[in-house]
Every structure is written in structure tokens, then in C-alpha cells.
């Protein structure tokens, strides 16, 4: 399903939210810098920008690249239509010459990047954008918005999915975040290992499986819990999931099995001491003969709560708030930095490395970089190697940057499943301590050569 | 400008992101509950849902209602078009009867709410949605998405704006959050007291003033800092803001004044010990005769950092990450609960209060509520009073809920400035300790009568 959708042109998808242009998801200063650079000719200097982060969120062992597919859509749709140009003119954001230039804007450069789902570490050059200064500088804001958001969600999802082991995770955080951030969150969670989402827009847009049970309101609108369960089973079948904590859990479980029979699909517990309640409910279900009825738990779960329920008779976890807020780290600290540029506007001019040199730990390393993950004899990752210049022969086959956009054309679309599978494999190739939930340093060091 | 934009139909605004329908920003279970309720007739029971929060984020003294205007847009645009219906049919989310019902969906009920910018406390009934169970239950997810996100951002913005005093705050967090959450964040920040945004889409969509300076990349693409400053001043005028921390700050300030003269608009400092550097830069600017050149500081500011710079010679603050992530609290814990419903589908049937009664502190209070803010003799708020039944005469003029949607028609559109002004007034009417940054309890108690 995902495969067929990914093969389509995004414009055909009938988005619930149509994105005719991503050009205004841009900071004001990108356009004023463009204006000044067009005026003195530096706009045409060949430039290399890189996206990287100086550190992982405190205590995290690895990061997860997510949003790459959305970046490709955003770059393709980065066009200034007449309404946008009129807005910029009316507000006097930039001059007429710049408006003329923007009217025909279309990214014609190259983008390389870590493929979606790959893991990353401090200094990993996750994305590299090459082209004229003018065409590259404009993409900064939208690229960072997407990668910083989606990667933060995917990192939380990855920790939760390793804590959950083989039990499926349901993403249900739409109500806790911006309505469109919710759609991107469901997508990033899927990359990070979640099985499904409650968000219908994410199902529509990305083909992610959607699931749902029922809310307390459904029980409360009925005259009794029995009436509510009867109505739900009658309409949705015995395979449905009944919510059993509106009044008394033990009574609800008894009623549920009376109404649906012993082949009731599942019950959901959304409050209380989940460890204790899950054990009691499992025992009660078994005693009632509903031995195959599953137990779904929800209620402010995070990776720690999920891990603490490993020994509980729980069949699936629904995760909301903590997923869409990145489990304490709702954004990454990725930056988009000019690392090299031509010494003149001549297209044949050599590239010179550049870097900010100032106080406050914000120094970056100049030069167009490659990256590779060195592995030990058992295939376990042992270092993230980042370099400028020729790639050592031993690392040539372990390079991480792939060509995503070639002379303005997207060349690396893939189904979301591919990113999800890649993430599982990349995480599995890290040292075992990567999935420890306790705080620590990046699980492998970054080496600069 | 905001006033004229708000007076237009949102459909005319030429959104950078067009939202033809908000119907899929909805959890799967809202639709399956609808199906079951349509089948047994409870769908038609008159119902009252309320949005409230059980607690403020830890340590916070008050909350800020934001997103109300976006909720009104979302309710108006909550329609199931053919592409959406086809998706629901193909995925077998709901049955044909439910699809038919959805095809003609249009909210026809009433919505009351705290007006945007108003402050709130635990238990405040921020929004009340009344209509049939079917039409109200569907709106849960999108309403909570908007209010939980936007109110979290506005609350952070409010704390930052009270810390900043009369100095303007610039919202510049777009790159740190989802590209559309960024637009909503700029809007919420404006309600909370920010003066402007870097986000062009927020300027386009909501008429918020946009501003910008330049990035390190602009300096680095030039052969020297002097070349970069010269280009920027030539193109954007002496009133521009020059970024002075790419190499050496003192040298950059000297070059800046040499290039732009003493009527240079401003310099921006984005790294280092801002308190120390601002003092040095102010002294240097003054010595160079640039006494009216302003100093803008940016670099991971939050309300505490802003407060700590109160005595520094700083003229404006640019805030990014901490604003768009709610300064540690990226979401509110607002819920949407059925609090009363008719005892039958008869439109004249009496409303009965309902409430979940279970473990885990998730109990809510049944009944259709009013709310008023009681003030002392000096006009200072002293309690949030929430009740069911008749409003005491002494509180009748201090009620907080206003009519937003009447029989499906939005009746309370207003310019964003109105929400911004209301917030300033509402915060000013709280006890002085409301704006203390230190952790504490809600600044006034919530009383239930």
C-alpha cells in the first residue's frame, strides 16, 4: 500500500491539506540576504550547505533521520506564485529585481543526504545542499523545520519501539500537537517503528494503517455501560476493542465478555496503575474464558513506562503526548551551515571551505564532507567517520550520503516502508547499549579525518 | 492590516497552505463511535462537550487561551469531500450509512468559549460544544490539536513578553518546529505579546509583521566581513541589522560602523555570553558615535535568559527554539469531555450530567458549566469560579464564556490584535505574582459552586 502511494506523484494524492507552494515556510532574512547577494553577484557563487547537529539531546545515544521524503516534496514545491509575489511586493520584503528572480525560482542543484530512517550522531552531515548561494540559501528554513521536527519524533518512536519489543505501538498523539505536525508525527513514528496511527489524515496522506477503539464519551452518552458495549459490538463486531475504565474496571470486563463473548477482540485500559490493572484484567479475562482477548494500554506512556510494562500481560501500547512531543525533546538542534563556496561567480571557480569562528561553542567545520560508518569484524558500528577530501578505501563501501536530488530532479523517492526497514536495520547494527534507556553519551564516537 | 484581513472570508486569503477540509484531522475512533451511535440512535442525543485542563504545566501560574480563531476556521471547513469519503470507504473505516451521513456533515450546533487571549486555570471550561452527540464528537481531535498546541506556545510567549517588559520580542523559531506548526506558533506568540515574526507564511496568512536580519552564511559567502556588510548596507540601507559574531565581535562592530556610519540600524549578537558581550558592544558603539544603533540578541533565549538580560543594554530579543517548544511545555493537557447529554434522542429531552468515575485522577465533573472570574475591590482577580446551574448575581457580569458559533454560524470572528490586547489586559488583572518566573501554583484558585 505504501509502495503504490509512494510511486505516485505527490500532487495526485489529494492531500487533506494541499501544498501548492512551500516557498513561504521561509524566514524573512533568507529573502533579504538573497536581495543583497543578487545585487553584488555573490548570489551566483557555487555553495555547499550542510545540515548537522552539534549534539544529541541530553542522554540520548543516537538520532534518527526522518522527514527526508517530506524535504524532497518541499523542495519540489518551492515556487513563488503570483499571490506570494504580490504579498512580498506589497510588504516591501524585497525589491523588484529579487521578485523577478523569485518568480522563476526552481531549485536546480544537488542534494545528498543520509537516507531516511538511518541513525546519526553529532557532526553527521545529514543533508548536503549544493548549488548557487541564492538557490541554496532559500531552502534553509523549510529543510530545518522538517528535519528538526520529524527526526525528534522518530527518535522518541525508536526508543519506544525498542522498549516495546515485539508488541505493536499505536500512535495516538494527534490531539496533543498541531494538526499538521500530527500527520508528520504519525509518519515519523512509523519510520521509528510504530505499527499504526489513530490519525486519519496520516492514513490518507501516507498510507499508514489507522486504528481506533472508543472514548469515554461513547460509554457516557449511553444509559449504561452495557448499552454502550452492546452498541459497539453490534456495529463494529466482536473483534472490536472495548474501553473498560469509565466506571469500575472489573465490572466492565465482566460486562464486555457477557456482551461480546469470549472472542472479544480487546479491551483498553486508559487510567490507573497499568501494571496492576493489566494483571488483574488478564486474570479476569482468562477466568471468563476470553483467553485470546487482548489488552491495550494507553495513558501518558513513554519509553520508560513501556519498558516497565514488559513483564505485564499487555498486547499493545497506545502512545500520544510523549510521542508527539519527542519524549522530552520536541526538536533537534540541526543547523544548516555554509561549509564551502566558490571564490567567484565563475562556475569553474574552486570551492573554498568556510566556517564561523566565534565564541559560544557554535563553531563549525568547513569543507564539503563525506561520512561513513566504520564497523568492527562482527559488523557492529564502532565510529561515525566524517571527513573532507578523498574517502579512505576501507570506508568507501560504508558511505552514508546518497544522492537525493540531481540537477534539481528528485532521484530517490522510496516507499515509507523502506525507511522503516532501514531504521530497524541501522539500529540493530549499533552496539547493544544503543537501546539502553538510561542516559549516556552517543553510542559511537564521531571521528573527523 | 490585521483588522482588514480578519474581516475577509478565510477562503479568500490565498493560504500558502490551502485547507479545503479539516475533516481528516480526526482520530479513527471518532468515526467508528459515530457509526455505532448512528446504528442505535444515541447519535441524535443532544450533548454538551467541554474542553478544560486538570492542571497547568508544572510550576506555571496561569494558562493562555490561543487558537480560538483557528478552531472557528477548522469547524467551518470540517467537510467530507468525495476524495475523503472514498478513502474512508476503501479502507473500510466506517459503513455506507455512516459515509452517507458524513457526506452532508456540517456542524449545526453552538460553541461557547473563553475568548482568545484570555487566561485560564485548572478546570476552566475553555470551550463548550453543544449539539447532537454525532456532530460534536467528530470535532474532538482537531479542536484539541489546535488549542493544545497554540495555547502552549502562547503561554510561553506571555511569560517571555512579561520578562521582556517594553522591549520587543521577535519570533524566529520556524526552523525548530513543523513548518505549519511554525505558522500557528507565530500567531500564538503574537497573541502572547510578541511584536513580530521571521516566518513569512505567518505574515501572509495572519498579517503579522515580519522582520529579518542576516545569517552567518551571508558573511561567509563573501570574501570578507567588510564585503558582506557593504553589500547588505548597499542593498538594504543603513537601517539594516548587521550580524557581528561571525569572526571577532569587536572588529565586526568597528567595521559595521565604518561601513554603515553612525546611523546603522542595529547589530545582532547570536553567541557568547550575551550579558557581557552586549555591554561591550554598547560601549563600543557609543564610543564610535553610533549611540542610536540598537542591539538585538538571539541564541537559545527563554524567559529566564530574557529576564537575566533586563539590566543589559539590549533593545530587542529574537526567540526561537524555546518559544516554539513552549519553553519546556510543548503541549497543554486539555481534554474534550462529554459533560451532559439528553436521556433520549427526543430534541426536548432533558440534559443529564455525566462523568467518568474511575481511578488514576482522570475524574471529571459532570454538567454544563459557566465560569466567571471574581475580582476584589481593586479589580484584581481572586478566583476562577466554575459552576453548574444558575450564575450568582454578583458574578453575572464577570462571565468568561462567549458565544462563538450559533446554530453552526461563526459569530465571533475578530482581528488577531483583539486577542493580543485582551491577553495583555487579562494578565494585567491577575495578582502581581502571576508574572513571577519562579515555579508556583496557579495564581488564583478555581472554586466550584
Automatic annotation (TrEMBL), chains A, B:
Residues 24-148 form the Nicotinate phosphoribosyltransferase N-terminal domain. Residues 170-338 form the Nicotinate/nicotinamide phosphoribosyltransferase domain. One of its GO terms (molecular function) is glycosyltransferase activity. Transiently phosphorylated on a His residue during the reaction cycle. Phosphorylation strongly increases the affinity for substrates and increases the rate of nicotinate D-ribonucleotide production. Dephosphorylation regenerates the low-affinity form of the enzyme, leading to product release. The keyword DNA-binding does not apply. Pathway: Cofactor biosynthesis; NAD(+) biosynthesis; nicotinate D-ribonucleotide from nicotinate: step 1/1. InterPro entries: Aldolase_TIM, N/Namide_PRibTrfase, NAPRTase_N, Nic_PRibTrfase-Fam, Nic_PRibTrfase_pncB, Nicotinate_pribotase-like_C. Pfam families: NAPRTase (PF04095), NAPRTase_N (PF17767). It is an enzyme of class 6 (ligase). It catalyses: 5-phospho-alpha-D-ribose 1-diphosphate + nicotinate + ATP + H2O = nicotinate beta-D-ribonucleotide + ADP + phosphate + diphosphate. Keywords: Glycosyltransferase, Ligase, Phosphoprotein, Pyridine nucleotide biosynthesis, Transferase. Its EC number is 6.3.4.21. Catalyzes the first step in the biosynthesis of NAD from nicotinic acid, the ATP-dependent synthesis of beta-nicotinate D-ribonucleotide from nicotinate and 5-phospho-D-ribose 1-phosphate. Belongs to the NAPRTase family. This is Nicotinate phosphoribosyltransferase. It comes from Streptomyces virginiae.
Amino acid at each position: 500500500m505504501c509502495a503504490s502511494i509512494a510511486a505516485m506523484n505527490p500532487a495526485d494524492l489529494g492531500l487533506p491539506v494541499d501544498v501548492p507552494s512551500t516557498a513561504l515556510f521561509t524566514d524573512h532574512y533568507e529573502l533579504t540576504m538573497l536581495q543583497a547577494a543578487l545585487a553584488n553577484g555573490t548570489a551566483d557563487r557555487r555553495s555547499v550547505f550542510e545540515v548537522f547537529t552539534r549534539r544529541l539531546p541530553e542522554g540520548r545515544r543516537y538520532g534518527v533521520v526522518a522527514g527526508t521524503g517530506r524535504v524532497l516534496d518541499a523542495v519540489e514545491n518551492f515556487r513563488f506564485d503570483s499571490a506570494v509575489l504580490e504579498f512580498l511586493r506589497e510588504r516591501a520584503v524585497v525589491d523588484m529585481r529579487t521578485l523577478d528572480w523569485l518568480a522563476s525560482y526552481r531549485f536546480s542543484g544537488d542534494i545528498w543526504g543520509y537516507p531516511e530512517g538511518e541513525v546519526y550522531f553529532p557532526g553527521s552531515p545529514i543533508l548536503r545542499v549544493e548549488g548557487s548561494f541564492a538557490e541554496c540559501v532559500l531552502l534553509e528554513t523549510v529543510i530545518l523545520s522538517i528535519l528538526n521536527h520529524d527526526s525528534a519524533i522518530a527518535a522518541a518512536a525508536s526508543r519506544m519501539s525498542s522498549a516495546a519489543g515485539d508488541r505493536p505501538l499505536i500512535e495516538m498523539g494527534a490531539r496533543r500537537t498541531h494538526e499538521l505536525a500530527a500527520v508528520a508525527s504519525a509518519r515519523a513514528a512509523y519510520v521509528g517503528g510504530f505499527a499504526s496511527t489513530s490519525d486519519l489524515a496520516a492514513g490518507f496522506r501516507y498510507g499508514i494503517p489507522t486504528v481506533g477503539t472508543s472514548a469515554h464519551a461513547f460509554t457516557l452518552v449511553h444509559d449504561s455501560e452495557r448499552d454502550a458495549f452492546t452498541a459497539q459490538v453490534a456495529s463494529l463486531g466482536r473483534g472490536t476493542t472495548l474501553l473498560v475504565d469509565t466506571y469500575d474496571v472489573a465490572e466492565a470486563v465482566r460486562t464486555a465478555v457477557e456482551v461480546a463473548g469470549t472472542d472479544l477482540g480487546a479491551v483498553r485500559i486508559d487510567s490507573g496503575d497499568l501494571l496492576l490493572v493489566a494483571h488483574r484484567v488478564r486474570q479476569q479475562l482468562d477466568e471468563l474464558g476470553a483467553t485470546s482477548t487482548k489488552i491495550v494500554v494507553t495513558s501518558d506512556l513513554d519509553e520508560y513506562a513501556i519498558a516497565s510494562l514488559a513483564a505485564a500481560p499487555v498486547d499493545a501500547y497506545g502512545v500520544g503526548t510523549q510521542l508527539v512531543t519527542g519524549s522530552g525533546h520536541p526538536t533537534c538542534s540541526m543547523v544548516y551551515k555554509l561549509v564551502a563556496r566558490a571564490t567567484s561567480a565563475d562556475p569553474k571557480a574552486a570551492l573554498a571551505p568556510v566556517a564561523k569562528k566565534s565564541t559560544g561553542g557554535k563553531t563549525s567545520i568547513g569543507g564539503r564532507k563525506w561520512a561513513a560508518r566504520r564497523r568492527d569484524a562482527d559488523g557492529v558500528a564502532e565510529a561515525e567517520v566524517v571527513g573532507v577530501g578523498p574517502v579512505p578505501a576501507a570506508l568507501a563501501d560504508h558511505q552514508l550520503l546518497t544522492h537525493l536530488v540531481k540537477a534539481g530532479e528528485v532521484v530517490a523517492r522510496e516507499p515509507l516502508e523502506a525507511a522503516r526497514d532501514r531504521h530497524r536495520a541501522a539500529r540493530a547494527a549499533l552496539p547493544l547499549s544503543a537501546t539502553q534507556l538510561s542516559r549516556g553519551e552517543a553510542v559511537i564516537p564521531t571521528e573527523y579525518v
